Amino acid sequence: MSDSQYQEVVDLFASAIPEEDGAQLSVFVGGKQVINTSTGVDPASLINVFSCSKALSGIAFAHIVQSGLINVDDPVVTYWPEFGAKGKTKITVRQLLSHQAGLPETRVGIKNSQWLTDHEAANLLAAERPLWAPGKAFGYHGLSIGTFMSELAFRVTGKTIQQYFEENVRKPSGAQAFLGLPESEHHRVAPLLPGKIPSAEQLKAYGPPENFVPGPYNAHVFAGLAPTAGPEADYSLTATRGMVFGHPAAGGLASAEGLATVFQWAVGYGQENSGLDKDVIEDFSQLQVNGFDLVLDTYNMSFGTIFMKPCGAKPFGSISAFGHDGAAGAMVFADPVGEIVLGYTVRRFTYPGGMDPRIRPIVKAIQKIALAAK
Asked: What secondary structure letter does DSSP report for 183?
C-alpha cells in the first residue's frame, strides 16, 4: 500500500535494496500513511531493530516524564540513591541519558547474562566510578542507556521500561513493535542475515582511515560484546523474545510500520491528539551533545536526551528531527518539518553499520515531495 504521489519513492526503494537483503519501509506524512512496502520479506514480519529499541524505550521514558514522575534535570540519586556511589551524586538524569555520564560499561566488564537480568547490570554500573568525568565528554552508552532507563522506570513506577512501553505506548498505539516478544508472535520473526564483504567503493566512502586504531574506550566497551554478524553470530543480547528481558537498548523486534506507528502516535502529526506533549518532544529532541564520541571513535555524532539527532554522518532530517538507527541498518525518525515519520528495517547487516546509507536518497525524495505539498 502506497500513495500514488510517492510511487517514485517506492520504485527507488525497490531498486536500491535487493530482495535478498529483506527490507521494509513505512512512511507517514501529516498523519497519513503514504508508504508501506517491502522487498524480500513480508511487510508484517518482525525484524530485530537493535538500537532503534532505544527510540521505543525513549518514547516510553518521555511518557513517564510527561506524567510528572521524573524530572530529567534532577540528580539521578533523587530516584535511585544507590547510584551516588563513587562520586556520582551530581549526575543528572539528562546527563545519564545523553551519553555523558561515563558509564557505557564497568572496568571489569558486564556479561551478556548480566545485561539481560533485571537490575544486575544496573547494580554493577551504580557501584562503578565513571570512566570519564561526567559532562566533560560523551561516548555512546550502547547497552547501558537501556539499563538506566529501565532501572529509573522501575524506581518510580514499579515496572521495567519494557513493561511500561507495552502498557502505555505499544497497546494504545496498536504498533507492531515489541520490547520483548510474546510467544504468540514468535512465528512472525524474520531472522537476521549476515552482512556481505564491503566493496572497495563502500570501504572508500564509509570505512575508517587506513591508520585507524580503536581508542581505549572503544576497545574496552566493545571487547566483551557478542558479535553482531556472521553465520555463527550470538544474537542473545538483541533477539531475546521474553517479555521481561528483551533488552531495552537493543532487543526490540518490529516491522517498519510498527516503528513508524509508535512515532506517529507519539508526535500526532496531522491529528488532534498525540501520545506526547509538544513541549516534552521538543525537550527530549533538543541537541545535548555533538562532536567526538569517545566510544564510537568518531568526530561526527549528535544526541538529544536518549534520541539521536541528524548530523553529517546521519543525515535524516532538520534540526528539529529526532530518532535512532540500529546496528544492522534500521532507522526510525520524526521530523516536524514536513511532518514526516519514517520506519525502516532490514534483515541483512549493512555496511558500515547504523543507518543504512542506501536510504539516504530515499529520505531526500520523501522530504522533497512532502515539502512541495505544503
From this structure: G
